[in-house]
Design goal:
It is found in: Nucleus. It comes from Taeniopygia guttata. One of its GO terms (molecular function) is zinc ion binding. By secondary structure, the protein is an alpha+beta fold. It has a domain at about 330-450 and about 470-545: Sandwich (Jelly Rolls). It has 9 helices and 29 strands. The protein has helices at about 100-120, 130-140, 140-145, 155-165, 205-210, 260-265, 440, 470-475, 540-555, and strands spanning about 5-10, 50, 60, 80, 90-95, 125-130, 170-175, 190, 240-245, 250, 285-290, 315, 325-330, 335, 340-345, 350-355, 360-370, 375-385, 400-405, 410, 415, 425-435, 450-455, 460-465, 480-485, 490-495, 505-510, 515-520, 535. Helix 1 packs across helix 2 (about 130-140). The longest helix has 19 residues, at about 100-120. The protein is elongated.
């Protein structure tokens, strides 16, 4: 069986309700689908494949979202799930994780208990190791865990040891009662200490504080793998302690490995980690997230790649739908405001680019000169990705700028008179027009899937080498292109024309402590009236569409297994 892995899925889609068996119905005993739920708006559907959101802690059945759970089981706990309302991307996130033997036994006994309640006239609570538990796990192994089925049949003995050891979760009966008609060969038998199946759910770290209740009323105590209480449950805590697979205990449940996939759910408000690598020393870093279009998303599970390079084709560049100043694509000494729309200079010239760039069409944005003391200066304009961040804008072939002092325009460190200067209180406009018929204009953005993935502070990034010399040699002019600057709504004329072909980002370079704010639109203080343009803000969703199309075409045109695109060598 192929088991689903981490993925982002469109919400909600109608799919058939999935059950272990079709027997679940209104005839369930006392602990039915409503048994553990105190939330009328989020009632449980025991016996069906349910997923609990790790943020809002609500439960959802498989027919709520278009998630492929054909290889899953009811009462599974080895997964991470975020509903489309809670997840930062607006899509549903689902990741199956590797289960240990305790989790597998818990799931097996829960399913056997539920089957007995719905099918047997006299429901059982204890089940034979040889006749019930081991056959069930053997039949549904691929659905219960992502671990490979062991080659040697030693796991049945390990299962018995696990259930005998975990007495806070499992009941053990080694021999039949005196006078019982049960055959001796049916023993030992095992059952769940806590028969309230609604208490079974995944362990999420954030539930420990949200659901911090006493465990004294819970028979299962630490029964739930990992700790948290099932949302909408009966109010019984499920775990002050978490026993690890090796038998050790900790006072609080801790992740033994930081999961960058799950960390991606906790991005700051403006979609980028606060601690991140900077583009410098000839390398550029692009935040990565799981690619929902990857044919084999189950490969995302980190246990499969322990000690191995994670294949880049399972990830994609993570883009925020708003155009802002980039946190990583800047000189580290520049100070960026929390809303990522204001920047303050520091010491010598250094630069920051916007998060999104353009490759064709006409685009416009504004910059307000908030504070400009006498000994400060600014160069503002447009830059390609390889423009030097530790230099003024217009220093190299990849950028074009307009300087505050004397209104000089710069390209390749050559300054030419252009207009009068600008200063504090001025609002400047920046217009670029790029032809639609160039090679760059017809190309889709880079997928970065052939680049190395690196981990930094629990997040994954594509690492791209800057081949500046080769890029400079390959530059060619784009006939018909032009850049125009505006001051307080007045055009200063064409500053540059037939500029080099490429992808251009709004860019700011500052000298010493001046402060400027950028407005990407769609509403401007001085919108140009004699030209047509798109506000840079439109590029937010535009880039998402372009990158998604590039990712899909990448997977359509190539096979996933064994594929590696050749790197760009100088």
């Amino acid at each position: 069986m192929k088991c689903p892995g981490g993925r982002f899925l469109p919400a909600p889609g109608a799919v058939a309700s999935l059950r272990l068996q079709d027997a679940a119905g209104d005839g369930a005993e006392a602990m039915d689908a409503q048994g553990g739920s105190g939330d009328e708006e989020n009632t449980r559907q025991l016996g069906e494949i349910e997923l609990q959101c790790g943020i809002c802690t609500k439960w959802f059945t498989a027919d709520t979202f278009g998630i492929d759970t054909t290889s899953c089981l009811p009462f599974m706990t080895n997964y991470s799930f975020h509903c489309n309302v809670c997840h930062h991307s607006g899509n549903t996130y689902f990741l199956r994780k590797q289960a240990n033997l305790k989790e597998m036994c818990l799931s097996a006994l829960a399913n056997l208990t539920w089957q007995s309640r719905t099918q047997d006239e006299h429901p059982k609570t204890m089940f034979s190791k040889d006749k019930d538990i081991i056959p069930f796990i053997d039949k549904y192994w691929e659905c219960m865990t992502t671990r490979q089925r062991p080659g040697k049949m030693t796991w049945p003995n390990n299962i018995v040891k696990t259930m005998c050891k975990e007495r806070d979760v499992f009941l053990v009966k080694e021999h039949p009662d005196p006078g019982s008609k049960d055959p001796e060969e049916d023993y030992p038998k095992f059952g769940l200490l806590d028969q309230d199946l609604a208490n079974i759910g995944p362990a999420y770290d954030n539930q420990k504080q949200n659901n911090a209740v006493s465990t004294s009323g819970s028979l299962n105590g630490g029964a739930s793998v990992g700790g948290g209480m099932a949302a909408g449950g009966s109010g019984k805590g499920r775990g002050a302690k978490r026993k690890q697979q090796d038998g050790g205990t900790t006072g609080t449940a801790k992740k033994t490995r930081s999961d960058p996939l799950f960390s991606a759910q906790r991005l700051p408000p403006h979609g980028y980690p606060l601690e991140h690598p900077f583009n410098k020393d000839g390398y550029r870093y692009i935040l990565a997230e799981p690619d929902p279009h990857a044919p084999d998303p189950e490969k995302l599970e980190l246990d499969c790649w322990a000690g191995k390079p994670i294949p880049g084709d399972l990830y994609r560049a993570c883009l925020y739908e708003r155009v802002l100043l980039a946190l990583h694509d800047r000189a580290p000494q520049l100070k960026i405001s929390d809303d990522r729309l204001t920047v303050v200079g520091e010491k010598g010239y250094s630069m920051v680019r916007a998060s999104h760039g353009v490759r064709k069409g006409a685009w416009y944005f504004e910059i307000s000169m908030d504070e400009m003391p006498p000994d400060t200066a600014a160069r503002l304009g447009w830059s390609q990705p390889l423009g030097n961040l530790q230099a003024p804008l217009g220093y190299d072939k990849f950028s074009y700028s307009w300087r505050s002092k004397k209104g000089t325009k710069f390209h390749q460190s050559i300054g030419k008179h252009y207009s009068s200067g600008y200063g504090q209180g001025d609002v400047l406009g920046f217009y670029i027009s790029l032809p639609e018929d160039t090679e760059t204009a017809k190309s889709l953005p880079d997928t970065y899937k052939d680049k190395a993935l690196i981990k930094f502070k629990s997040y994954l990034y594509f690492e791209e080498k800057d081949f500046v010399d080769k890029a400079e040699k390959s530059l060619k002019q784009a006939p018909g292109s032009q850049i125009i600057f505006f001051k307080n709504g007045v055009s200063q004329g064409v500053a540059f024309k037939d500029i080099f072909e490429g992808v251009y980002f709004p860019a700011i370079s500052l000298y010493k402590g001046c402060t400027v704010s950028i407005n990407f639109g769609p509403y401007f203080k001085y919108p140009p009236r004699d030209i047509t343009y798109h506000p840079m803000s439109d590029m937010g969703w535009g880039a998402v569409v372009e990158h998604t199309l590039a990712d899909v075409l990448y997977h359509v045109e190539t096979e996933v297994d064994g594929r590696r695109s050749p790197p760009w060598e100088p």
